[in-house]
Amino acid sequence: MANVKQPKGVELRNISKIYKDPKTGKDFYAVHNVSLDIAPGSFVTLLGPSGCGKTTTLRMIAGFESPDEGDIFLGGEAINALTPNRRDTAMVFQSYALFPHYNVFDNVAYGLRLRKVPKDEIQRRVTDILQLVELSGMEARMTNQLSGGQQQRVALARALVVEPGVLLFDEPLSNLDAKLRVQMRTEIRRIQQKLGITAIYVTHDQSEAMSISDNIILMRGGVIAQMGTPTEIYYRPNSEFVADFIGECNFLKGTVRDVNAEETVVEIDGHPVSVATEGARQESPGDPAEIVLRPEAIAIADHGDLPCTVELSCFMGSYQNYHVTVGDTLVKITDNCPVNKRIFDVGEKAFISFDKHCAHLL
Amino acid sequence: MSRRQSASLDRKKFFGDPVMVVTIVVLITLLLLFIVYPLAILLVDSVLVRENDLYSAADLAAGKLEWVDKNGAPVTADGDAIFARLTAVTEGGEDRFVPVYAKPGVFAHQARLKDADGTLYIRVVNSTDRVVWLDLSRLMEVDATPMTYKPNGRLIKKADGLEPADICVQLRRNNWSLDAFPRIFKDYTFNHALRNTLLLGMLTGFGSLLIGLLFAYVDVYVDIRSRVIKKLFDVVSMLPVVSPPFVLSLSMVLLFGKSGLITRKLLGIYDANVYGMWGIVIVQTLTFFPVVYLMLKGLLKNIDPSMEEAARDMGATRMKVFTTVTLPLLLPGLGNAFLVTFIESVADFANPMIIGGSFDTLATTIYLRITGGTYDITGAAAMAVVLLCITLVLFMIQKYVLEARTAATLTGKASRVRMLIEDKSVRYPLSALCMLISVFVVLMYIAVPFGALFKLWGRDYSLTFKWFAKMFSEGGWKAFKDSFILSLIASPITALLSMIISYLVVKRRFRGKGFIEFTSMLAMAVPGTVLGVGFIRGYAGGIFRTGFMQGIYGTGLILIIVFVVRSLPVGTRSGISALRQIDKSIEESAYDLGAGSGKVFTSVTLPLIKDSFFSGLVTTFVRSITAISAVILLVTPRYLLITCRINEYAEKGEFGVACAYATILIMITYAAIMLMNFVIDRFGTSRRINGKEGA
User: Fold this and answer.
1) For domain B177-458, which CATH number applies: 2.60.120.10, 1.10.3720.10, 1.10.357.10, 3.90.1170.40?
2) ipTM of this model?
3) Cβ separation of A97 and B685 shorter than 8 Å?
4) pLDDT band, residue B175 (cuts 50/70/90)
5) How would you classify the pairing of strands A69-74 and A10-20?
6) pLDDT tens across B582-595, in order?
7) How far is CA B559 from CA B37, B139, B364, B633, B668, in A?
8) What is the pTM of this model?
9) What's the confidence (pLDDT) of residue A279?
10) Is it true that domain A10-243 has CATH number 3.40.50.300?
11) Cross-chain residue pair A84–B10, CB shorter than 8 Å
12) B504 to chain A, minimum CA–CA distance in Å?
């Protein structure tokens, strides 16, 4: 089995990249003052909408772009001025970038041949890695005779086989269909954990990011919006943008009435609701507050904390989808397993309530 | 914000890649040396009048060595540089003090007084402007000093009994003046040639445009059911690629000349005259219209049929659709095609040479100025500059204005298949016209081998091999061998160079990229004759007349270089379009996996554009072996080239031998193209990638 020598940590220190806007001709920051510390062996995802600078950041780590400010360290060494071929990184490209003139074996062996690895060792390592990505027996195929998923595996094998200090993924699954995408991301995660390799993964798909990473770095407009584990990002977003980008979200505006160690009481349209107090944050009574609520964390019933009016009620199979208004605010609710519950119709009055630990104050 | 850091990092990465740095430096040097320099020297030459004056070296020859400094004062100190006094031969001329060298050649260094006992040299020029180093102690030996003159200007030959007083040498005097241009513009021959050239370009341009448009329209819009016509179209569009440039001129003379098969035998006209303007126009039109046909065909295919259907639907007649929709959309493309033909016509040398008669164009006038009795090099250089300006300006308009506009109007892909015109009143006349022209063209090509096989064209049409026999007995083998070998050497060099250039242009970012791209394309706009004159002026006396690289002049090497320069733009263009289709990340992934620039190019890029590389190989070979305009000025008797021989025999009126050469030449080029198609089909990348080969 291919063993990773030693996974390397990646550190970005105040990285910026300036591009010229092709229309206005003005310079702008594609990436601005980004600092990151990625632990060896961890799986980190750069997530964000298109144009947020995530791919540029990845390409700076690979060496295809040079940062305008700041330094990049790989395993503690500054690699700013190194050309891509001298960096201990291997990248899996969005388009796979398989060499169309080589067969599967030669594609995977390419990096090893460059490193002048002896023939029998190449044979052994390529066979091992192809087994790992479940492509044994396909060595002689040309790459155009493979399905999208298989091409993806070849690209992965080709990057893995050189045992890089860090593995880079540039939206590797975006060319696959939805089902295959789910399958492949589980696969990638399995292999990464088995080998204990450091991986940096770029995607704009939040569910992909959640399911695969140890840590997510959410970027927007060239800066980091939030960093943290998937759970932190999901339940404790630090801005409306983050909350909205990661899954569906409701925002309820109100005023803080009372704060203690356990809970913070917020008044919305004259109705008090309580939210668990988070250690680091301290609101004081009278402050405006915004509660972030996931649709699946809200219960709808005849009795509860906040009165509401049902605007839309729609059966979706695994859940009942409601749009209700609380005051003037639209709130989306997904009520799971609705079979035996009371179903509210459009126009009905109802109440919503939520567990204080599922709510978060912005 | 400043991008200084990324710039400096990019620079560090760039210099961390020695293969790339060396490649770029070598490329830029080559382009400077063999494209920019010869053209620049033409400009210099047209404003710089060089006169060679005779000076008596009697004192030096007699051994009366008296060293002075550059002002003529005696030298005393050991370390001072020494000069020799030469007296003017002409009455009233001033004496010159020329530097004396201790070592000749490129790394010559001037002698000091302490070196005066060793061998000493002075630098003079010979009658063809070449630099000659004269050994002062051997001035009296004719073998050692081949370029000494008698005071009357006559070259000293072996048989002359020599006296020291006889020995004179030539020195150059530079005179900057703009005289050459007013002089040639007052020159009757030049004015005539200029007018002829422009007129010819116009007529040929319009002629080719008309026929090319007709062919393209019929091919794309009209329902041609006949397989024969389709096949004919293919043949006609391929013929000018395979054939040497002057084949049509030869057959024109054979078919329509004084003893032409058609004029005399069929029509009974005894005083037909094909020589002159109309002869050239017809020949050039037939040679260049397939280029227009191919260009317009591509554009017409890109026009969305639904646009024309919409016009039809709103009540436009077919003619109205053509004039209001198709033609306006095509207009920039037509302009583009017109200019391309215009440039080709203006630059054409071989056809005006063979059937021009007294109708001289700029290209032929320049050639005659240099090879003819007058040897007016300044005049020729000035004319070459004028010719270059014409083609360059047109090239710029074509490349940067019209090409962009063509791309802007016709980028879309046709959304659906076009309904072909089945109307008989359109179909019959148009396809008949195309058929007629195609048959005529094919007929003209067929006339050539028969010209080589008939005993005496116009009189005796019995078959014979005597012209072939005569060809081989008069240096035919050597001509084929020389042409073949030189072209064979030039083709891999060109193919590789153009692939490297296109790789750099498409895939890499670096300073000087614009220069490389522009210069390698520039060669397309430079007429062969101009390039030839540039090489003569640039290398006959070495670079900047220092004698450096003088050695390549008159050798096979310079011919190979000219072949390479002439074919480079074609190869580069095809390489660029092939590379644009390859996803950048394929190379990046090789780079990322640890391959350096050289390795990325050889292991990924080159294999992927193998087809383009191979077709570049063959195209260069074909272009080189059929080239004439530049090489005819540079070839020396050491090498015989097929094309030059054809020109020679055609000039002498021995059309049988000329046709014999042309026949074999066509066979060689045709075989090369067949080989190319076979190899690409059999071993090409596209075949493997398209998966025609089983796993």
Assistant:
1) 1.10.3720.10
2) 0.76
3) no
4) low
5) antiparallel
6) 888 888 888 888 88
7) 16, 34, 20, 10, 20
8) 0.77
9) 66
10) yes
11) no
12) 16
